Amino acid sequence: MISLKYRGVSCFVQAASNTLCKSSLQNVYRDFHRNFSKVGFIGCGNMGNPMVQNLMKKGHKVSVFDVKKEAVSDLQKAGATGCSSVTEVVEGADVVLTMLPANQHVLDTYTKKGGILESVKKGAYLIDSSTVDPSVSQTLAPLAREKGATYLDGPVSGGTIGAEAGTLTFMIGGEEDAMKKVEPLLLCMGSRVVYCGKHGMGLVAKIANNMLLGISMLGVSEAMNLGIKLGMDPKTLMGILNTSTGRCWSSEMYNPVPGLLPNVPSSKGYKGGFGVALIAKDLGIAQNVAIQSGVPIPMGAQAHQMYRIMDLKDLGDKDLAVAYQYLKSEKSS
């Protein structure tokens, strides 16, 4: 078995490595890089930046664009090709990934004059990793098909920590064969790629996950605040929660109390991470699709209102874990 430099390629051939000869594996390696020799990335914020960094670490040449020039400049310094427009990123690209804030940003980036669909080449793959309404994917997929391109919704789970570590989970909606073609590329940024079903289903999985995240972060913030206010040592309380029935990611990996965990937003002034405004947006999407489907989400709806209130109190750019500080400052009525 030969040793391959790029984790995406390694993952792609791992299952076949016991049966393929050395020359066959080398062919897979060559095909992978021939098919994806030019990668474009649009949206280089808290999530997009480390995703691009990981693509480059695995040897990919990446062209980037963001409406914020400093985001492009930061990645240029790291070795990316900075572009001044969407068109410049897309022209000649084999794969274009997008990581954008909301529905309209995605629709405009794809369909407006100078957008992706105006310049995309035939045979290209378009992967949107934004968290948006499933209808966005269902709208854009046939438009991409008309241009000879393949569109997939591919939102991610793992947050900024997972993006930096290259351990994201990609939830894919679209054609399964297409997912298999781009899986080696996605594994350069993540550790898991899951096929969820037809277009929009990756987003359904993501919305359900984010709704649960929003609810659980509020629950952990309430529990930690109550225990600490009653005199419990924060570290001891966290340890108990993390070895008891209240154990969850929001407590164990992303605890909202400052100083308990290193390298998480709560220990960095709640900077970076997953902003309150964004979780409020995602919970709004969950509420909208739930209403349309007649599905009750009472906890999701309550969490949505809580994050909206925090956003209105100028906490929108802080990580969602700032819920702890918000509750800490509130008085019981």
From TrEMBL:
Molecular function GO terms recorded: 3-hydroxyisobutyrate dehydrogenase activity; NAD binding; NADP binding
One Pfam family this sequence matches: NAD_binding_2
InterPro entries (UniProt xref): 6-PGluconate_DH-like_C_sf, 6PGD_dom2, 6PGDH_NADP-bd, HIBADH, HIBADH-like_NADP-bd, HIBADH-related, NAD(P)-bd_dom_sf
A GO cellular component entry from the record: mitochondrion
Main EC class the enzyme belongs to: oxidoreductase
Residue intervals of the 6-phosphogluconate dehydrogenase NADP-binding domain: 38-197
Involved pathway(s): Amino-acid degradation; L-valine degradation
GO biological process per UniProt: L-valine catabolic process
Residues at the catalytic site: 206
Subcellular location: Mitochondrion
E.C. designation(s): 1.1.1.31
All copies of domain 3-hydroxyisobutyrate dehydrogenase-like NAD-binding, residue ranges: 200-326
Catalytic activities: 3-hydroxy-2-methylpropanoate + NAD(+) = 2-methyl-3-oxopropanoate + NADH + H(+)
Keywords: Branched-chain amino acid catabolism, Mitochondrion, NAD, Oxidoreductase, Transit peptide
Family statement drawn from the similarity comment of this UniProt entry: Belongs to the HIBADH-related family. 3-hydroxyisobutyrate dehydrogenase subfamily.
Protein name as catalogued: 3-hydroxyisobutyrate dehydrogenase, mitochondrial
Organism: Frankliniella occidentalis (Western flower thrips)
